[in-house]
From TrEMBL:
Official protein name in the record: ferredoxin--NADP(+) reductase
Organism name: Tetraparma gracilis
Record-linked Pfam families: NAD_binding_1
Keywords assigned: FAD, Flavoprotein, Membrane, NADP, Oxidoreductase, Transmembrane, Transmembrane helix
Catalysed reactions listed for this entry: 2 reduced [2Fe-2S]-[ferredoxin] + NADP(+) + H(+) = 2 oxidized [2Fe-2S]-[ferredoxin] + NADPH
EC number annotated for this UniProt entry: 1.18.1.2
């Protein structure tokens, strides 16, 4: 018992008031950092806790275990709930059995803690499809163990070196994948990192026939991975896609396909995990997501759950190109949604919000055109507006 760092009473202590604790941006005080040997002695000042039952519900399909396990059989030791509900043996934990990773709240984005040449082994803990069977292509959610000392923040990428040799007999070059989880990882133990990987397929432009000989190496290995398979990983990489420091700033996210990955991380941080970041977020998060067919919407249950939880603070606008039409009668893409909502998007960014773009390179020309036309309609110079947003670090693009 006794007051924690924030002066609030702990569970079981006199005066403990969960609502007050929550309102102050904290959770159950962290009892014991030594649950995680590699984090011993490293303490953050904020209190964090996770309620596995709540997290499970938020996954939308029962629990995280069931969802990730929908693929090739996720095997967390004792199940995800057991993972949290019980302290590790030999460790005396007083009060609530909670995970103790408060210092992760203090993380600043750093790059290349693990360099490619020193790549570390990551094991596949879970893999499962994140789009429906009726959607074209193959996109998998892959949960990997993250090597000790590998810490990342939302919006960074993981470097993955595929196994085997290239055609010249040399080791393959590393590929980057946006991290789709928060710094806590999908198991909230700070020991995993999740990716959203699209299998790169190749079809003959003339015949349309698939050519497996030209299929993507790394994405193929990741999408075919089984629980227990290992990959050489390094990173984290990138500081382009970081959440704003100001918790009242709006967060506008524009993605196509796997471009949703960093935004899943953002939204989990803002709406799913009961951390100080979620408690203090006072802005609006608005996701624009473009996919070809509705079965291709990524993580739909999660976004539904987060919208409910966000109570209006999370908005999701989808463009489903093969099912919806734009004003001109053509296929509807994200840029058409941006055009429709342009005035509000501009107002939000001009009021201090940040706008993020992620997905295939090909999405940007259409988006820039749409943004320019919205500027023109409002009598604004697009060049000046964009330069201002870039200068203030409100404009973030990561396309590949
Ligand atoms: P490669 O083997 O490198 O092949 C590349 C492409 O060439 C493939 O499309 C392949 O089909 C084609 N090809 C192969 N052989 C031939 C040939 N002979 N002739 C013509 N074409 C051929 N991807 C994701 O899925 N999810 C992400 O979140 C993600 N995030 C990224 C973030 C960043 C910052 C960057 C830079 C990239 C990201 N990528 C992401 C892309 C990813 O890094 C890889 O580029 C992608 O997975 C393809 O790699 P691969 O090894 O599978 O394909």
């Amino acid at each position: 018992g006794g007051p924690n760092a924030g002066g609030l009473a702990e569970p079981g202590a006199k005066g403990y008031n969960p609502a007050e604790v929550k309102a102050n941006g904290g959770g159950v005080p962290v009892s014991n950092y030594s649950l995680q040997p590699q984090f011993m002695g490293r303490e953050g000042s904020k209190d964090v806790f996770f309620d596995p039952a709540e997290l499970g519900k938020l996954q939308g399909t029962g629990d995280l275990e069931a969802r990730v396990g929908g693929g090739s059989g996720y095997e967390a030791p004792g199940g995800v709930n057991a993972y949290y509900a019980k302290p590790m043996p030999d460790v005396e934990v007083k009060g609530e059995p909670v995970e103790a990773l408060a210092f992760l709240e203090e993380l600043q984005a750093r790059e290349r803690l693990v360099k490619d040449k020193d790549g570390k082994v990551a094991t596949v803990l879970g893999i499962g499809p994140c789009i429906g069977e009726d959607a074209p292509g193959d996109i998998q959610h892959v949960v990997l163990s993250s090597p000790p000392g590998f810490e990342y923040v939302e919006g960074q990428s993981l470097s993955v070196t595929p196994g085997g040799k290239d055609k010249k007999g040399k080791p393959h070059k590393p590929r980057l994948y946006s991290i789709a989880s928060t710094r806590y990882g999908d198991l909230c133990d700070g020991k995993t990192v999740s990716l959203c990987v699209r299998r790169a397929e190749f079809s003959d432009p003339a015949t349309g026939e698939a050519d497996p000989a030209k299929a993507g190496v790394c994405s193929g290995q990741l999408c075919d991975a089984k629980v227990g398979d290992t990959f050489k990983v390094a990173g984290p990489v990138g500081k382009t896609m970081l959440l704003p420091a100001d918790p009242s700033a709006d967060v506008i996210m524009v993605g196509t396909g796997t471009g949703v990955a960093p935004f899943r991380g953002f939204c989990h941080r803002l709406f799913m995990e009961p951390t100080p970041a979620a408690h203090t977020f006072a802005g609006t998060a608005w996701l624009f997501l473009g996919v070809p067919v509705s079965a291709g919407l990524l993580y739909p249950e999660e976004f539904e759950a987060m919208k409910r939880r966000g109570g209006g603070q999370l908005r999701v606008t989808t463009a489903i190109s093969r099912e919806q039409q734009n004003a001109g009668g053509g296929r509807k893409y994200v840029q058409d949604c941006l055009r429709e909502e342009g005035v509000e998007v501009f107002n939000r960014v001009n009021a201090g919000g940040s706008i993020y773009f992620c997905g295939l390179k090909g999405m940007m020309p259409g988006i820039l055109e749409a943004m320019e036309s919205v500027a023109k309609e409002q009598g604004l110079s697009w060049e000046e507006t964009l330069n201002g947003w870039k200068k203030n670090k409100q404009w973030h693009v990561e396309v590949y």
